[in-house]
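Collaboration report, partner site 2.

Our partner group contributed sequences for two proteins of shared interest, and the home lab folded both. The records are reproduced in the order in which they were received, starting with the first partner submission.
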Amino acid sequence: MSEAQPDIPVAARRGRAVARLAARLGVLLVRLAGDALLVDAAYETWRSGSPLRIIVIAAVAGFAVLTLWVLSQGGRIGGRGWLTDPASPYILILGLFIYSAGSPNDIANGPVMVGQPAGVALLGILLLLVALAVVRFSGPWGVRTLWLRVIVAALGVYAVWALVLALRARTGAVAVLAGDCEWRAAPVWLRGGDMGAFVVLPLAFVREFADAMTRLTLVGLFRWMVIFALGSWLAIRVAGA
């Protein structure tokens, strides 16, 4: 006969239940925030008269209809599948901005969000991506090599500082990646905007990819690979516009 398993203390069971509930609520809040941003983008882009308003409305409406269908079939937010993933609305937002980044005129008439014109909203997205890249690379889930974590964290903080200042000045993303950001005494390619977009973001993608190869799994990593790959692609499109 197998040995009897010791009973789990009541306090430990409650602690685990609370932790699961908190994680579940966190996932729901992240997803609801992304959905709210999508609805806001659709509404504000329509009101702005942007040439892309039909595309944005159609993309958001299609996403909403498909998500509701998946939920009606038993899917749940945070469960298996792309449409129920908490990152899916953010990935769609990235896709819409990538689509609109063909030229400075296209960027200026792209999606409008949170009361900001397209170029400023795009800069805010790049700022958020760089901040997430720093956390993923140098945070608790990041690389184990201390000196590498410190270097990337320093570069990331420098980039975030430059992007925050540019955002406060309402500088557009095209101008920032062309060098209109701190630190202006440095060459353009060493200024904060370019360091964040073309160093920190690609390094974050490489780290996620390397981690997936080491662990031989994409679980918990693939969404981050997609986000940082799309962020890098978005930066390249904006810089080449």
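Second partner submission, folded after the first:
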Amino acid sequence: MEFIDINTLKENDIVKFINPNKTLVDGRIRKVSKECVGITINTRQDAYREFSQNQCIELILVRKHEALRCTSVILGSKQTGFEQAVIISLPKLVLGIDRREFERISIVMKIEYSPLPCEVEYESLSKVEQRYFRSFRKTYTIDISAGGVNFILSRDEEVSNFVLVALSVKDENILVLCKKIRVETMEDPRHKKVAYKYNDIKKQHRQLILDFVSEKSKELNNKERAI
């Protein structure tokens, strides 16, 4: 495993601590040095569990183009009021991570998509011609995560390597450039499902989806326990 470049860690950035039960706890970066990172955690979060010195942890660093799953160690801890301050070792990137390892929920959501030419490799939204921002088609999701989305297409429709996806989360309109991962058949012979990963997405929008998935997952778990 390799260490995260400290130049990519910024004060006030949000990080996600991963609990053993896969729930997420928000932390905010307060200080970055060559050997460690200082983070504060609001202890009033539902998923909060106290962190202790020498504890090995997993966390997610949210970037504009990606979400990085990392490991670290708690080097020091102090709790004051409704806040726990921790010092962690420089995070190490978990190599070879599959985006499907990030928490994913099965959910039907209305979205729109705009197929892009198959012969072009798109690296960013800024490289997409304006006409494709005016030719969206309607469909719905099968599942969604902080790394990508799986949605329905007609069986006979050509599957583009890149698409624009427009969706709404918590009343926020999100526009993403996506790249195809795989195509799968369905029991309904009239349709197929296509998995896309986010290739260009605003940092705050990835964070919003991450929070949305976490909240919906908690709701589902609470309902299951209540049955």
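Feedback sent to the partner group on the second submission included the following. Residues 96-100 have pLDDT under 50 and may be disordered. Residues 20 and 107 are 24 Å apart (CA to CA).
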